[in-house]
Specification:
The structure is a single chain. By secondary structure, the protein is an alpha+beta fold. It is 38% helix and 13% strand. The strands form three sheets. It has a six-stranded antiparallel beta sheet, with helices on both faces. A hairpin with a 3-residue loop joins strand 9 and strand 10. Helix 2 crosses helix 9. The protein is globular.
């Protein structure tokens, strides 16, 4: 009996990951590939390699990674599910939901503008360095939210400016609209309908103590952080998110490759008018071309041959990257989802070899997939 397609894909992903580890691109990685076989049945191939901490245990297929900005499409999808039920609208504005947003540029933006990076807010700001309160306190969250609402981009209006601040603002507004904390919102709108649990996707900072301890023992480490004075493991890498208490619309989630792939598969299926996860009318709106840049609602798209998705992905491919070395790409033409989670920031974010490795990884997987 011959080797199955899933086995071939898993072997190729493992080979590429091993090359990344030996080339010091990252200490650890895990991958998941979701596709349909000839009968239309969903299949998933997984692979992993490296060690979760220097000198530590090997990474496994179910190793949790700090997802960084892969939090954004997950949060955006939860927002769309609220929109589908009429709980909120994409035209809603934070200043209608959060009193602290009133009279600010961020407060006057719509959720659609915030989630498509067209709110006029700045890309980023070291708010964690300026907050006059202890990280994670209600006062710190309120101060950071207010600052995020006020800090604008200096460029011309209408252009796409990838903005963590916009997602900080949107996260608080959507939480207020739903009447739930963001971790509860993700559990209800993403985990439950996809038959996942907090071993697959979670906000680490919102876990009970026993589960957090388990995650910290198993997760891939990220950076040796001078600001916090320790190697981060099972603790959000993004400093602004940490100062917010570890739960935000822009970062804070941890997940396994299989968990991310299951989410991305549900979204891709919805965009292809399959499954109950989201109405196609909303995924069409989310993925629609907008002037001023490539960013869509919750996602980015392949921008050309030099894209992080590689040369082989179709031009309809959509996905997202995370600063810690995480990525997911969904190709509607192939009906294919490919997830690569790494901890390339361990021990330092100065390592940027992922920029060359990532498109080569996706090209390798796409090439083998196309070979049948």
């Amino acid at each position: 009996m011959g080797i199955s397609r899933s086995e071939r894909l898993a072997a190729e992903a493992a080979r590429l990951i091993a090359a990344g580890v030996s080339g010091n691109v990252f200490p650890a990685a895990a991958a998941a590939i979701s596709y349909r076989d000839a009968s239309g049945k969903l299949q998933m191939a997984t692979a992993s390699g490296g060690v979760v901490v220097p000198g530590g245990k090997p990474a496994e297929d179910d190793t949790p990674f700090d997802l960084a900005s892969l939090t954004k499409p997950i949060f955006a999808a939860a927002t769309l599910r609220l929109v589908a039920r009429g709980t909120t609208t994409l035209e809603a504005k934070p200043d209608q939901l959060v009193p602290d947003a009133r009279g600010t540029p961020g407060g006057a933006a719509t959720l659609e503008q915030l989630l498509t990076h067209r709110s006029g807010l700045a890309a980023w700001g070291g708010l964690y360095l300026d907050v006059p309160h202890d990280p994670g306190t209600t006062a710190a969250r309120r101060w950071i939210f207010g600052e995020a609402c006020r800090r604008t981009d200096d460029g011309p209006p209408g252009r796409s400016v990838y903005s963590d601040l916009g997602y900080i603002v949107a996260g608080e507004a959507v939480s207020r609209a739903s009447g739930r904390d963001l971790d509860e919102l993700i559990a209800a709108e993403i985990l439950a309908p996809l038959a996942l649990n907090d071993h697959h996707l979670c906000y680490a900072a919102a876990l009970p103590a026993d589960r957090l301890g388990e995650l910290q023992r198993k997760a891939a480490a990220t950076e040796r952080d001078d600001w916090r004075g320790r190697l981060l493991r099972g603790e959000v890498h993004d400093e602004n998110c940490y100062a917010l208490g570890g739960v935000s619309g822009h970062a804070g989630m941890f997940g396994t490759a299989r968990g991310v792939a299951t989410f991305a598969r549900a979204y891709l299926d919805a965009s292809l008018a399959r499954g109950p996860f989201l109405p196609k009318i909303l995924t069409d709106r989310a993925l629609a071309l907008r002037p001023g840049g490539t960013h869509r609602l919750g996602w980015d798209v392949k921008s050309g041959p030099e894209s992080a998705a590689g040369k082989r992905a179709s031009m309809k491919t959509f996905g997202h990257l995370g600063f810690t070395g995480t990525s997911v790409w969904c190709d509607p033409e192939r009906d294919l989802v490919v997830v690569l989670l790494t901890n390339r920031v361990c021990p330092s974010r100065a390592n940027e070899k992922i920029k060359g490795f990532r498109p080569a990884f996706y090209d390798g997987v796409f090439a083998l997939f196309d070979a049948g």
